[in-house]
């Protein structure tokens, strides 16, 4: 039952090891409304070079000098987008469960889309530390939103899955969000929506906050 006092066992990593005491690599909520705490992630090759220019970039690839207006406009709009996304993530988390942390909402999204996964795989997907992931999964389990089951491929490991209650609560909130998107984007050309999705996917594939990269 959600919110009930439950004795939660240690969440286990890929090799079945207790990750409760692993070094916590971060606790700041994810930019872009992913809803998962951000830990230390590898920096891309060449990151931190002056003005962010990669000296090995292929010919024809745009290089932006300091003060470039297009890049500054993009930065401004991304900042607004991230701020609104974080606020929205908090609202959706509370709609799923009053005690759900905003940072954990993205975990529900991932589990709904991908199905059962190992805790270590979830940590790798979101780029967070094992201890951060362990803490968030314990909280979700205590609320009755996720459970774990033995991995049939490896008896030493466990898979995390949404419970029936977690699935029902999440899909209700997700469907309401999608309905809002449909209303707000109803006047947009479909091609523009498709292009925006493509560009955001490209941005998300390279986006690592500068404050995690030495020399940035």
Q: How would you explain this protein's 3D organization?
A:
With 216 residues, the chain is mainly alpha-helical. The protein has a domain at 28-37 and 67-207: Arc Repressor Mutant, subunit A, CATH 1.10.10.10. It has helices spanning 69-96, 105-114, 119-126, 130-142, 164-184, 190-206; strands at 28-29, 37-38, 117-118, 146-151, 154-162. The strands form two sheets. The protein has a three-stranded antiparallel β-sheet with strand order 3-5-4. Helix 3 (119-126) crosses helix 4. The longest helix is centred in the middle third of the chain and has 28 residues, at 69-96. The model is unreliable at 1-10, 12-53 and 210-216 (pLDDT under 50).
Short description:
This protein is mainly alpha-helical.
Summarize model confidence as the mean pLDDT. Answer: 75
Query: Do you know the CATH topology of the domain at 28-37 and 67-207?
Result: Arc Repressor Mutant, subunit A
Shape: globular
Q: Which structural class should the secondary elements be placed in? A: mainly alpha
| Share of helix, binned | 40-55%
Strand runs, count: 5
Please report the distance between the alpha carbons of the first and last residues: 46 Å
* Largest sheet descriptor: 3 strands, antiparallel
- Going by CATH, the architecture of the domain at 28-37 and 67-207 would be Orthogonal Bundle
Give me the CATH superfamily of the domain at 28-37 and 67-207: Winged helix-like DNA-binding domain superfamily/Winged helix DNA-binding domain
């Amino acid at each position: 039952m959600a919110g009930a006092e439950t004795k939660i066992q240690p969440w286990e990593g890929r090799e079945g090891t207790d990750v409760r005491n692993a070094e916590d690599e971060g606790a700041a909520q994810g930019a872009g409304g992913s809803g998962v705490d951000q830990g230390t992630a590898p920096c891309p090759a060449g990151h931190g070079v002056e003005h962010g220019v990669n000296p090995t970039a292929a010919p024809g690839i745009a290089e932006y000098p300091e003060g470039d207006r297009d890049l500054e406009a993009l930065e401004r709009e991304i900042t607004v987008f991230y701020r609104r996304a974080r606020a929205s993530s908090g609202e959706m988390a509370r709609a799923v469960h009053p005690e759900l942390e905003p940072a954990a909402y993205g975990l529900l999204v991932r589990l709904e889309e991908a199905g059962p996964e190992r805790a270590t795989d979830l940590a790798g997907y979101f780029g967070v530390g094992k201890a951060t992931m362990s803490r968030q999964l314990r909280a979700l389990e205590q609320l009755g939103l996720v459970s774990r089951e033995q991995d049939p491929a490896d008896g030493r490991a466990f898979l995390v899955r949404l419970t029936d209650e977690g699935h029902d609560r999440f899909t209700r909130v997700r469907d309401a969000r999608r309905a809002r998107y449909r209303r707000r984007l109803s006047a947009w050309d479909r091609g523009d929506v498709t292009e925006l999705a493509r560009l955001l996917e490209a941005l998300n594939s390279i986006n690592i906050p500068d404050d995690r990269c030495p020399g940035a």
